[in-house]
Amino acid sequence: MPQHSRPQGFARADRVGEQIRRDVAMLIRDRVKDPRVGMITVLDVEVSKDFAHAKVWFDALQADQGLEAQEALNHAAGFLRRELGHLLKLRMTPALHFFYDDTQSRGNALSALISKAIASDRHADEEDAATEIDDVDGVASTKGAAES
Protein backbone atom coordinates (compact mmCIF):
# COMPACT_ATOMS: atom_id res chain seq x y z
CA MET A 1 0.00 0.00 0.00
CA PRO A 2 1.55 3.37 -1.04
CA GLN A 3 2.30 5.98 1.58
CA HIS A 4 0.64 9.37 1.13
CA SER A 5 2.36 12.54 2.27
CA ARG A 6 -1.02 14.13 3.13
CA PRO A 7 -4.11 12.68 4.75
CA GLN A 8 -6.56 11.29 2.20
CA GLY A 9 -9.29 13.75 3.23
CA PHE A 10 -7.04 16.72 2.51
CA ALA A 11 -6.36 15.55 -1.05
CA ARG A 12 -10.09 15.08 -1.64
CA ALA A 13 -10.82 18.59 -0.35
CA ASP A 14 -8.21 19.92 -2.80
CA ARG A 15 -9.78 18.02 -5.70
CA VAL A 16 -13.28 19.16 -4.79
CA GLY A 17 -12.03 22.75 -4.39
CA GLU A 18 -10.46 22.68 -7.84
CA GLN A 19 -13.66 21.31 -9.38
CA ILE A 20 -15.71 23.98 -7.61
CA ARG A 21 -13.28 26.64 -8.87
CA ARG A 22 -13.78 25.54 -12.48
CA ASP A 23 -17.56 25.16 -12.19
CA VAL A 24 -18.11 28.44 -10.32
CA ALA A 25 -16.00 30.31 -12.89
CA MET A 26 -18.14 28.83 -15.68
CA LEU A 27 -21.40 29.59 -13.85
CA ILE A 28 -20.38 33.19 -13.17
CA ARG A 29 -19.36 33.67 -16.79
CA ASP A 30 -22.47 32.05 -18.27
CA ARG A 31 -25.29 32.52 -15.75
CA VAL A 32 -24.70 35.57 -13.53
CA LYS A 33 -26.22 38.63 -15.18
CA ASP A 34 -25.47 41.21 -12.47
CA PRO A 35 -23.53 44.09 -14.12
CA ARG A 36 -21.55 44.66 -10.90
CA VAL A 37 -19.74 41.36 -11.42
CA GLY A 38 -18.04 42.26 -14.70
CA MET A 39 -14.93 40.37 -15.76
CA ILE A 40 -13.50 38.34 -12.88
CA THR A 41 -11.07 35.48 -12.44
CA VAL A 42 -11.72 32.83 -9.83
CA LEU A 43 -8.30 32.36 -8.24
CA ASP A 44 -8.77 29.72 -5.58
CA VAL A 45 -11.35 27.78 -3.58
CA GLU A 46 -10.80 26.47 -0.08
CA VAL A 47 -13.30 23.84 1.05
CA SER A 48 -13.86 23.13 4.74
CA LYS A 49 -13.12 19.61 6.01
CA ASP A 50 -16.82 18.79 6.32
CA PHE A 51 -17.56 20.24 2.83
CA ALA A 52 -20.16 22.58 4.35
CA HIS A 53 -18.44 25.82 3.28
CA ALA A 54 -16.26 26.95 0.42
CA LYS A 55 -14.29 30.20 0.39
CA VAL A 56 -13.96 31.48 -3.17
CA TRP A 57 -11.23 34.05 -3.90
CA PHE A 58 -11.45 36.08 -7.07
CA ASP A 59 -9.78 39.03 -8.78
CA ALA A 60 -11.58 41.63 -10.89
CA LEU A 61 -10.24 42.89 -14.20
CA GLN A 62 -11.06 46.43 -13.10
CA ALA A 63 -9.70 46.84 -9.58
CA ASP A 64 -12.21 49.53 -8.64
CA GLN A 65 -15.09 47.05 -9.14
CA GLY A 66 -13.73 44.32 -6.85
CA LEU A 67 -15.75 45.13 -3.74
CA GLU A 68 -18.94 45.67 -5.75
CA ALA A 69 -18.40 42.31 -7.43
CA GLN A 70 -17.88 40.69 -4.02
CA GLU A 71 -21.19 42.09 -2.81
CA ALA A 72 -22.98 40.92 -5.97
CA LEU A 73 -21.45 37.43 -5.83
CA ASN A 74 -22.31 36.98 -2.17
CA HIS A 75 -25.86 38.07 -3.04
CA ALA A 76 -25.94 35.43 -5.83
CA ALA A 77 -24.29 32.75 -3.65
CA GLY A 78 -27.54 30.84 -3.09
CA PHE A 79 -28.26 30.70 -6.82
CA LEU A 80 -24.69 29.63 -7.57
CA ARG A 81 -24.82 26.97 -4.86
CA ARG A 82 -28.01 25.50 -6.34
CA GLU A 83 -26.55 25.49 -9.86
CA LEU A 84 -23.30 24.02 -8.56
CA GLY A 85 -25.29 21.25 -6.86
CA HIS A 86 -26.58 20.17 -10.27
CA LEU A 87 -23.00 19.87 -11.56
CA LEU A 88 -21.27 18.24 -8.59
CA LYS A 89 -21.79 14.70 -7.44
CA LEU A 90 -21.63 15.45 -3.73
CA ARG A 91 -24.04 14.58 -0.97
CA MET A 92 -23.98 18.21 0.18
CA THR A 93 -23.08 21.28 -1.86
CA PRO A 94 -20.97 23.73 0.16
CA ALA A 95 -22.23 27.22 0.96
CA LEU A 96 -20.21 29.69 -1.11
CA HIS A 97 -18.48 32.71 0.44
CA PHE A 98 -16.80 35.12 -1.99
CA PHE A 99 -13.73 37.23 -1.20
CA TYR A 100 -12.10 39.84 -3.42
CA ASP A 101 -8.35 39.23 -3.58
CA ASP A 102 -6.54 42.38 -4.69
CA THR A 103 -3.06 40.95 -4.15
CA GLN A 104 -2.27 40.92 -7.86
CA SER A 105 -3.54 44.47 -8.36
CA ARG A 106 -1.49 45.71 -5.42
CA GLY A 107 1.53 43.76 -6.70
CA ASN A 108 1.20 45.37 -10.12
CA ALA A 109 0.96 48.83 -8.54
CA LEU A 110 4.04 48.11 -6.41
CA SER A 111 5.96 46.88 -9.47
CA ALA A 112 5.03 50.07 -11.31
CA LEU A 113 6.32 52.17 -8.40
CA ILE A 114 9.58 50.21 -8.32
CA SER A 115 10.03 50.61 -12.09
CA LYS A 116 9.37 54.34 -11.78
CA ALA A 117 11.93 54.66 -8.95
CA ILE A 118 14.54 52.74 -10.96
CA ALA A 119 13.95 54.93 -14.02
CA SER A 120 14.23 58.04 -11.85
CA ASP A 121 17.52 56.79 -10.36
CA ARG A 122 18.92 56.02 -13.81
CA HIS A 123 17.97 59.49 -15.01
CA ALA A 124 19.65 61.08 -11.97
CA ASP A 125 22.79 58.94 -12.52
CA GLU A 126 22.95 60.04 -16.16
CA GLU A 127 22.73 63.70 -15.12
CA ASP A 128 25.48 63.17 -12.52
CA ALA A 129 27.70 61.48 -15.10
CA ALA A 130 27.17 64.36 -17.54
CA THR A 131 28.38 66.89 -14.97
CA GLU A 132 32.01 66.69 -13.92
CA ILE A 133 34.23 68.83 -11.78
CA ASP A 134 37.22 70.43 -13.47
CA ASP A 135 40.08 69.76 -11.06
CA VAL A 136 42.20 72.63 -12.27
CA ASP A 137 39.71 75.46 -12.08
CA GLY A 138 37.32 73.95 -9.53
CA VAL A 139 34.52 74.96 -11.89
CA ALA A 140 31.72 72.58 -12.84
CA SER A 141 31.55 71.96 -16.55
CA THR A 142 29.31 69.81 -18.70
CA LYS A 143 30.71 67.16 -21.03
CA GLY A 144 30.63 68.28 -24.59
CA ALA A 145 30.63 71.96 -23.64
CA ALA A 146 33.26 74.18 -25.23
CA GLU A 147 36.34 74.39 -23.04
CA SER A 148 37.78 77.83 -22.23
TrEMBL record:
PROSITE patterns assigned: RBFA (PS01319)
GO biological process: maturation of SSU-rRNA
Domain of life the protein comes from: Bacteria
Entry keyword set: Cytoplasm, Ribosome biogenesis
Region of interest called Disordered, as start-end residue ranges on this chain: 122-148
Compositional bias annotation for Acidic residues: 126-137
Location(s) in or outside the cell: Cytoplasm
GO cellular component: cytosol
GO molecular function: ribosomal small subunit binding
Function according to Swiss-Prot or TrEMBL: One of several proteins that assist in the late maturation steps of the functional core of the 30S ribosomal subunit. Associates with free 30S ribosomal subunits (but not with 30S subunits that are part of 70S ribosomes or polysomes). Required for efficient processing of 16S rRNA. May interact with the 5'-terminal helix region of 16S rRNA.
Similarity-based family: Belongs to the RbfA family.
UniProt-listed PANTHER family: RIBOSOME-BINDING FACTOR A, CHLOROPLASTIC-RELATED
HAMAP family named among the record's database cross-references: RbfA
Known partners and oligomeric status: Monomer. Binds 30S ribosomal subunits, but not 50S ribosomal subunits or 70S ribosomes.
Protein name as catalogued: Ribosome-binding factor A
Name of the encoding gene: rbfA
